[in-house]
């Protein structure tokens, strides 16, 4: 019997939800490829561990890096692996899948995802716009005639949307999110300390002591980090503070704030009034950055709430969709060719 699965194909992480079971898979959207043979060596967390550590012939790539499918073939292979991983959690012959994809994905890319899933022995029932799934997963009343604003800060993109009666009424996407935050940290440390650090180290710094606004607990935080000196090429230790990281991140965060302002400008007045009352809900891994809510509140004057389990909102939204539409969806079952 066919089971229903929801997939959040994110730029940083891919998650899968199985109807009646919950989240069954959570892996980084990373593939390690041997460039001599084009063979896929590892997928998911094992591939992510290889970033910056591979011998010359193996490269670890994020095929969806900036919110678009940069590499069709690799994305397809990655999806196939993920579907097989997910399939192990439940026995099904031909799974029916709803997919949440980044907004920047074109029709051609969408078709590629469709084909990849088909090749993996499953079938795409529907594509759900990510902001809608995020809002649903965050518990917002998306089907009501009320404006809800969601800001999803992922790896490659930050997406802001106002949703009412199940549709997106105002929307803005910027290619500034977790990855750009990491790059900003690398750049800052290089400029200030002549020290080169890797992508993984930058992400660790961000996740441990990064903040958008001075908050309790992060104010005096500091971290000892290792890198390679650009002066003499030797390994070197420095201590970096939360305040420095805040400074490193501030320009990137300002772009995210701007995206919220732009979306508000595009929002019809009645719905704006709802948002003034209900505020902004933040989802995605970037919502875990300390002080993101106070920063957004300071810059917009709106109430701001970080969703519960922000990394899981999109896939949980897809899950809610599956559970709710378990029966009514049968009629929309026809392949969408
Ligand atoms: P996507 O939907 O694009 O796959 P996610 O919503 O999974 O992205 O979020 C991934 C991003 O969130 C990464 O850039 C990661 O570094 C970042 N992230 C994860 N945990 C934290 C944290 N505690 N603080 C700041 N950023 C975080
Ligand atoms: Mg996402």
Please tell me about this protein's structure:
It contains ten helices and 16 strands. With 337 residues, the chain is of the alpha/beta class. The chain has three domains: 4-130 and 314-333, 2-Layer Sandwich (Nucleotidyltransferase, domain 5); 134-176 and 250-311, Nucleotidyltransferase, domain 5, CATH 3.30.420.40; 178-248, Alpha-Beta Complex (Actin, Chain A, domain 4). The strands form four sheets. A five-stranded mixed beta sheet has the order 3-2-1-7-8, sandwiched between helices. The protein is flat and about 60 Å long. The two termini are 23 Å apart. Mean pLDDT is 89; it is low at 329-337. Magnesium ion binds at residues 8, 10, 130, 152, 154, 284, 314.
Keywords:
337 residues, alpha/beta, Nucleotidyltransferase, domain 5, Actin, Chain A, domain 4, 5-stranded mixed sheet, 27% strand, binds adenosine-5'-diphosphate, binds magnesium ion, MreB_MamK-like, MreB, ATP binding, ATPase_NBD
Summarize the structure.
The protein has about 325 residues and is of the alpha/beta class.
Topology:
Elements (H helix, E strand, L loop, with lengths): L3 E6 L3 E6 L3 E7 L2 E4 L4 E5 L1 H4 L9 E4 L10 H16 L8 E6 L5 H13 L3 E7 H8 L10 E6 L4 E7 L2 E8 L3 H16 L1 E2 L2 H11 L12 E8 L5 E7 H25 L2 H10 L1 E4 L8 H9 L3 E3 L6 H12 L13
Parallel strand pairs: 1-7, 7-8, 9-15, 15-16
Antiparallel strand pairs: 1-2, 2-3, 4-5, 4-6, 9-10, 10-11, 12-13, 13-14
Helix pairs in contact: 2-3, 4-10, 5-6, 5-7
The chain binds adenosine-5'-diphosphate and magnesium ion.
